[in-house]
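WP5 quarterly update. Target: GNAT family N-acetyltransferase. Source organism: Nesterenkonia salmonea. Length: 461 aa.
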Amino acid sequence: MTSEFAPQIPAVSSLAEGLSSRTFEPGTDEGGKPDASTAAFIRTVEYGFYEPWYSDEQLERLHPVFNEDAQELTGVYVDRGFAALEPWGGALETVGFDPDHPVGTFVDYDKTINAGGAEPLPARLITGVTVNPSFRRRGILKHMMTNRLASAVEDGMALAALTVSEGGIYGRFGFGAATRLRGLQINASAAGDGFALTTPPVGKALTVDPSKTKDVLKDVFAQFHANTRGSVGRQSTYWETGTARWDPENITSWDRKARAAVHVRDDGSIGGYVVFTYAGWDSEPSTMRIRDLIAVDATSRIELLRHLAGMDLVDRIVTPNGSPVSDPLQHALVNPRAVKTTSLGDVLWIRVLNPVAALEARAWNADGEFSLTISDSLGIADGVFTVSISGGVAQVTSTESATAPQHFWLDVAALGSLYLGDVSVLTLRDAGRITAEDEADWAAFSSTVDLPTAPHCATHF
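Structure tokens (predicted):
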């Protein structure tokens, strides 16, 4: 038996004739501004997501945070010489974008994911994935994905992760939906069925100047990240928008609508912060929108919500996409119907690249031993692995144990969904995503693998 395992580097899918790709770091011209290739790439991403194009001034603001996060840009480009031979080549030359604009984009960079183990695990994050609708069915997405997953494997990453706009695309590349978030609507009125908590206030919530909170935001998030399974390290843009230095609608301007509050615990430490905006005097009922709420513990989270609900002229609070599935708020209210779930959707999708490293970094609910046969259409994580958990710590070997009492089969996308504990093995079994021999003890497997609370990813990328 050996614990050595080397993920297989996937074959990079080829592009259709007349297309080529390149990966590069955001660059600058002689004047220190984003160079033509970088500017065209970033504008293409915004174009692909139906967002306004960035102005030159906005690109200058954005460029440093790309570099701070060490983001790498991969673009697929049309060979104009080839295009000239096509019937549409003349039109592309005349009215199309210039050659610096790609027809496919892909951005990746490294942060960490808290899988519940002793330390967060480095992971390759993927964002900015677009394909020009005029160039579909030419292998662009498959090429970019296999190319960059190959790079992640070569760099020794155990995980890749992304958030998705369309849920039916990334399962074929081995990604599984791994966390969810709730949208909430809170009745903040004091009368009738409105907001009232069963417990007295703890500590003090303070309205603060958001422009002074950068260190607080970083410190609170660092504590949250270290203590929260499912959390993903944040990109630098969070500190700019969270401190009102960037208006999300125009990053060259201050966000003068942004408001902030912190919760100060009884020992004087700051246990959480909230960034929020007022929906406007024409909103009916009068509504406050939470943009970001990060708390070290449930007490600070609830106290920040108490603070918002107690503000004058506010009858409703909405959190469009930021509340954990295991939110204690409803059970802390005198009237649990004062809060309603308005949405529930997936957030983080996980792609396991190295099952040994990934499973050893995961949390476990009980001791146990079992073997997994993992299938992977890209070949990266294919293999048989034995997982032995003792004292909450797993040791994973890359060959089947003769003594393991249980053996289960699943594909790498199902493993991604199972990884952070958002879904139980019994649910995946019933969905046909995990199989076993007839005599398998599913109850024992579930008691070992399943975790008592849902994971929470508060980072969007």
